[in-house]
Amino acid sequence: MKTLDTALKLLKLFETEEQTLSVTEIAEATALPKSKVSRLLADFRANGFLEQDEQTRRYRVGLAAFELGSNYIKSQPLAHAALPVLRQIVERTGHSTTLSVMRGDLILHILAVEGPHYIDGRWRVGNRLPFHATSAGKVLLAGLTPAGFEAFVANRRLDPITPSTVTDPEVFRRQVEETRDSGVSLTRGESAPGLSAIAVPVLGRSNDTVAALGLIIPDRFFAEEETDSLIALLHEEARTLSIKCGAADYPFGSASASPKPALARSAAPV
């Protein structure tokens, strides 16, 4: 079991944004002898979970790992129920949508649908973002109890990702408190320059927050006058998804028909 635990810790190194790793880098990160690292890598390579570049000799994620990860989405009821919801939002707004969860102190996008206003940012499926720099992160943290939130942020730093990232602990606390009351978080360029994001909670069987439903908007298509209708749409779709996930109710937005937002694709670039 100790060998298995060591092997899994080695494999988890490939969760980072580094696309490839060398034997030396892995040995340094795990404090293991290079000989043992090489044996473990050979086993992962033989089973398809890792691949080795023939020229650089560096390792990258293999096809078997991709297949295993893909089965999570296929078998996860939340993701399965969310896909048509995300497509509906894209159809009505023209903007990309995401479904995100918390993993450790990072936000993980487990599902996304690209809209016609796609811009290359950090929202792709599998991307992990700092908890404090995203609207989804603030929504997911707002789902904690006040005591749970304080315990979570107690020893964590709010490092700047962009010039717009909130790094003041008191400002961050106030934003999360406001999100807990309103059920929505709006960020402007906090995790990636040129992108705005709106997120609302998705609730589960115990009416706890199980995910964040988000909308990604390039700044040149962001229109202040459409914000309320976009938020109403997200609440409308999050309510539908929450009920599918077994939530008894959804306390945010209006249960009545929400006004449909004008398509952001019609907004003139600024």
Walk me through what this model shows.
The chain is α+β, with helices and mostly antiparallel strands and 270 residues long. 41% of the residues lie in helices and 18% in strands. The protein has helices spanning 2-12, 23-30, 34-46, 63-75, 77-93, 135-142, 146-153, 169-182, 227-244, and strands spanning 50-52, 59-61, 96-103, 106-113, 128-130, 185-188, 195-203, 209-218. Strands 5-4-3-8-7-6 form a six-stranded antiparallel beta sheet, sandwiched between helices. Helix 6 (135-142) crosses helix 8. The N and C termini lie far apart (58 Å).
What's the number of extended β-strand segments? Answer: 8
Unreliable stretches, pLDDT < 50, 5 or more residues?
Answer: 256-270
Strand content: 15-25%
| Helix run count | 9
Could you estimate the helical fraction of the residues in percent? 40-55%
Largest sheet: 6 strands, antiparallel
Order of strands in the sheet with most strands:
5-4-3-8-7-6
Which class best fits the helix and strand makeup?
A: alpha+beta
What Rg do the Cα atoms give? Answer: 20 Å
Task: Compute the average pLDDT.
Answer: 86
Shape descriptor reads globular
Q: What order do the SSEs take from the amino end to the carboxyl end, as H and E?
A: HHHEEHHEEEHHHEEEH
Gap from first CA to last CA: 58 Å
